[in-house]
Amino acid sequence: MDTRPGTETSTAGAAKVHLIAGLAVDGHRVETAANGTIALATLGEGAYDLIFSDLRMPELDGPGLWRELERRHPGLRRAVRRVLA
Length: 85
Prior knowledge:
Elements: H1 11-25, H2 36-43, E1 51-54, H3 62-72, E2 80-83
Parallel strand pairs: 1-2
């Protein structure tokens, strides 16, 4: 993801850039996924303390991602924070 100023045009996109930058500055490792399907595959490969998810995403939406996490990786449910966008 490109986090340079001016590369995100929507309010939601700008909020995402600021969230990512703030977490990274505080020393957190930040990963992003272009859609819910990619997120689900990535989440199965590592350990995560916090997961932010949009409700509306291509291929696999937020509620679908939540259901699949419950089924495949129930331990990650506690880390999910849904974001209305």
